[in-house]
Amino acid sequence: MATVELTDETFADTIAKDGVVLVDFWAEWCGPCRMFAPVFEAASGKHTDVVFAKVDTEANRMISDALEIQAIPTIMAFRDGVLVYRNSGATNASGLDKLVEALSSDELGAQVAEAKAAEAAKAAGGSAEEASAATEPTQDADSVDA
């Protein structure tokens, strides 16, 4: 699957989808972004069950500002609509493959489901214990060997 270009208008709908959505925040003037682009594109062809998306930070300042993108490239990953990974800086093909495998794991899927259930219980007026029973599973570069 080819990468999908996201805009301020399409970002929220895309990341809310079930499954894994990997987003590359980039800019045309960014050298590391241009070097990472073919790696990201190749991974999108290899991992067809994952949505690979790109956000041009210059053209889509609203979402870039809202997400506090301060360095590029920045990679963010969402699993079933929940942010589970964020890292600034490019990675190599092997690291990106390992990241996709970790994001697709059943264990992470279960953690995301628990976090969503806790959030739903909290929103529905559930107890604080129910709401805090699961926390949002956010991973960073130290916890996923990318």
TrEMBL record:
Keyword GTP-binding appears in the UniProt entry: no
UniProt-recorded Gene Ontology molecular function terms: protein-disulfide reductase activity
Domain Thioredoxin: start-end pairs: 1-105
Polar residues: bias regions: 135-146
PROSITE patterns linked: THIOREDOXIN_1, THIOREDOXIN_2
Stretch list, region Disordered: 121-146
Source taxon at top rank: Bacteria
Bias kind Low complexity: ranges: 121-134
Keywords: Disulfide bond, Electron transport, Redox-active center, Transport
Database matches in InterPro entries: Thioredoxin (IPR005746), Thioredoxin-like_sf (IPR036249), Thioredoxin_CS (IPR017937), Thioredoxin_domain (IPR013766)
Pfam families: Thioredoxin
A GO term from the CC aspect: cytosol
Family: Belongs to the thioredoxin family.
Classification via PANTHER family: GEO12009P1 (PTHR45663), THIOREDOXIN 2 (PTHR45663:SF40)
Protein name: Thioredoxin
Source organism of this protein record: Propioniciclava tarda
Organism taxonomic ancestry: Bacteria, Bacillati, Actinomycetota, Actinomycetes, Propionibacteriales
